[in-house]
Specification:
One of its GO terms (molecular function) is DNA replication origin binding. This is Tc1-like transposase DDE domain-containing protein. With 404 residues, the protein is an alpha+beta fold. It has 16 helices and 14 strands. Helix 9 (164-170) packs parallel to helix 14 (300-317).
Length: 404
């Protein structure tokens, strides 16, 4: 390994700025050549409070390296996925790369490239490096967000009320939950409300978080307000990803707000009217025809959000410990003319349970054993199935028998 540069910073903290090597760095080499001989003794010298900063490169997050850090009691800082904004060395590499490309004669051999890199490194003004270091607080702020849906695009109160995380923690479907929210707004403090995320600026006024764009694109893709084809909706969802079509993105965010409010209202209605029933091996909820916004939940992504939100809310509100460990199956009218319903299943909310979704295979077996007429027109076949309305009862009975 060559080109190792260690810089001393404030508070006795040392930063490893860069390392160049002639071969590929694997997880085993990272553990044996960096973590064990360099990081471990330095962590021991620093003592309590040592925190390892590394990005999410594959060798860094591999199981053997994570196990080594855990065994040695070395804490590593959480890092946003693929985020060069939080790694100053990435910006230095960019400066060096552009300097190399601007040369009249490009390096022809590995040695010439190595010599050119050393020369370019020495030519970088120290003020450039200081500027990158001073920019780190701002970069960290840009990569931190709130666990609130679309909070930059409507009021904080609306965002809290219509985000599953806060709504379920406050139990906003109850009067007691509403009172707790008012007390919270007076105190303005909540544990784990901040998350790591990415943002983008379009001009000075338009700032969007990654989560905002996901909500907007999904809302446009499953728009039920206009009777348009799936192809048209797909094109609009694709258009909202372009920086030249901000109007489309803003329209998607407006649709996303309506969808989140519809989900929150449906969850509150299901909890308050006890529509979630225990069927033995799973919980079951059926949205009746005529339920407000039921057409929205004929779409798989909207139904997925509702299903996850509903299970989280139910777990927070029930006192039945067994029910807290059960998965949830939800059904909603799909196509009234065809007489079909869409059925979805998700694993339990409990953190100690297996998160793998096995409903896809269970749905197939239940349909085969009862000769239920099913349709498989969705990308996600692991948790969603469409079947005839009149087959719903025997299909569920078969599922109960199969999963018991």
């Amino acid at each position: 390994m060559t080109g190792l540069a260690v810089g001393q910073s404030w508070c006795g903290v040392a930063f490893l700025w860069g390392a160049a090597q002639p071969s590929i760095l694997t997880a085993i080499r990272y553990r044996d050549e960096i973590l064990r001989p360099l990081v471990r003794p330095y962590a021991g010298a620093v003592g309590p409070g040592f925190l390892l900063m590394q990005d999410n490169a594959r060798p860094h997050v591999a199981g053997v390296c994570q196990q080594f850090l855990q065994e040695e009691g070395i804490d590593a800082m959480d890092w946003p996925a693929s985020s060069p904004d939080l790694n100053p060395i990435e910006h230095i590499w960019d400066i060096m790369s552009r300097s190399i490309h601007q040369r009249h004669v490009a390096p022809q051999t590995v040695q010439e490239l190595a010599d050119a890199l050393v020369q370019v490194w020495e030519e970088i003004p120290q003020e450039t490096i200081r500027h990158l270091i001073r920019s780190m607080p701002r970069r960290c702020r840009e990569c931190l967000s709130l666990r609130l849906a679309l909070y930059q695009h409507w009021s904080l109160y609306e965002s809290i009320c219509n985000s599953s995380y806060t709504s379920c923690n406050f139990k906003l479907w109850s009067m007691h939950g509403q009172k707790k929210l008012q007390e919270f707004l007076a105190d303005m403090g909540m544990k784990d409300i901040r998350i790591q995320t990415f943002g983008v600026h379009f001009s000075f006024k338009n700032r969007f978080l990654a989560n905002d764009v996901v909500h907007a694109a999904a809302a446009l893709l499953e728009n039920t307000e206009k009777d348009e084809s799936l192809g048209d909706n797909f094109i609009k969802a694709l258009d909202c990803l372009s920086r030249s079509n901000l109007e489309c993105l803003h329209g998607g965010i407006d649709l996303a707000k309506k969808k989140l409010m519809a989900i929150q209202q449906t969850v509150a209605s299901c909890i308050c009217t006890n529509l979630i029933l225990s069927q033995g091996p799973f919980l079951y909820c059926y949205l009746l025809e005529g339920t407000p916004d039921v057409k929205l939940f004929s779409k798989p992504m909207a139904l997925t959000l509702l299903c996850k939100y509903l299970l989280k809310a139910f777990v927070r509100s029930t006192r039945n410990k067994r029910c807290k460990l059960l998965p949830l199956i939800i059904a909603a009218p799909m196509d009234v003319e065809k007489g079909t319903v869409i059925v979805m299943g998700i694993p339990p909310e409990s953190e100690t349970s297996d998160k793998k979704n096995l409903f896809g295979r269970a749905f197939e077996k239940a349909a085969e054993s009862t000769s239920s007429r099913t349709f498989h027109d969705h990308f996600d076949t692991s948790s969603i199935i469409e079947l005839k309305m009149e087959d719903r009862t025997k299909f569920l009975d078969a599922l109960i028998t199969l999963l018991s």
